[in-house]
Amino acid sequence: MARMGEISEMSYGPEVLLTIGGSDSGGGAGIQADIKTFSVLGWHGTCAITAVTAQNTLGVQRIFGLEPEAVEAQLESITNDFRVAHAKTGMLYSAEIAVVAAEHLKRKGIPFVLDPVIEAEAGGRLLRPDAVKVLKDYLIPLARVVTPNIFEARALTGVSVSDAASAELAARRILDLGAGAVVVKGGHLDCTDVLVDESGSCCLAADRVKGGNHGVGCTYSASLTSFLGEGLSLRDSASKAKAFASAAILHSLPLGHGAGPVNQAALLRDEALRFRDLCAAEKNGGESTTENLLPGAR
Questions:
Q1: Residue 20 pLDDT more than 70?
Q2: Which H/E stretch holds residue 259?
Q3: Host H or E run for residue 222
Q4: Range list of H helices, 41-94
Q5: For the residues 110-114, what does the mean pLDDT come to?
Q6: Residue 204 β-bridge partners
């Protein structure tokens, strides 16, 4: 058996993504949402947990932050074995953990999406106030893309976002901090995202979709990470991520008593039902074979 430092080349492959963030006990957001998104989009997801939250659809009841050494140990275990194609950061919780994440990603040369998670959708602060400066000084200058919502954009820049023009202003201020690109998400306004990089800006519009919204920010940034990992352009990746997140909202699950969780696996539902029906047909003496109902079969 190979030991650490003597890892076989068989461990390496292009299909691995990494998320650095908090655990959501309700399964709607955080690393749970990220891993589900990675899996649905065909990736093997790895994770470094920064904090354990006692959380449900009503809000965040308790937060138990991990020691920075625990986060670093997880990152070392992952990157010493797997070749990570792309990463994302979510809830970093403390300034110390944010520094650990920044230094590790920089040292390993892993491109990443920075989702500057500050508060939970259902309520509850997820980032200590002193960590905001670390995001601006350490993480943003390294990030390939930063994906704030309008509240996070204001926390990072002081700009109150109320329309596309103010969203672009906030995005450009984040770009000035060193980010490769910025997508200010407009889900709290008219659902128009504003993408800005050195080449210019564009708006990505979509109709508002009714449904639960717990975990939508994590789902968006995780799907953006997935598409960027495939080598798609930033604009194509952002457009596809927006469509994926919208589908997850549309098919959200009516669970809990608050903001229901989005459903990342909605795109697999039809394939699963087809497979179930095929198995039933075979059991009843039908002529179909399970090969016809495997995902992707036509």
A1: yes
A2: none
A3: helix 216-229
A4: 68-79
A5: 98
A6: 193
- Its pTM stands at 0.85
Residue type, 212: G
Tokens of 288: 């179909």
| CATH class for the domain made up of 12-263 | alpha beta
pLDDT tens for 188-200 read 677 689 999 999 9
Q: Identify which of 138, 148, 203, 147 has the alpha carbon closest to the alpha carbon of residue 177.
A: 138
Tokens coding 123: 């309520």
- Please name which of 166, 217, 160 lies closest in space to residue 196, comparing C-alpha atoms: 166
* Alpha-carbon gap, residue 52 to 250, rounded angstroms: 28
What count of residues does the chain have?
A: 298
Burial of 23 (0-12, 13-18, 19+ CB in 10 A): buried
* Whether the Cβ atoms of residue 221 and residue 266 lie closer than 8 Å to each other: no
The CA distance from 92 to 71, in Å, is 10
**Backbone Cα Rg of the chain:** 20
Using alpha carbons, list the distances in angstroms from residue 84 to 11, 116, 180, 249: 11, 21, 19, 28
Scan for tokens 């993408």, then name that residue.
195
Q: Is 166 a residue whose pLDDT tops 90?
A: yes
**Tokens 């997820």 belong to residue:** 126
Structure tokens at 55: 């959380």
Cβ atoms of residues 31 and 21 within 8 Å:
yes
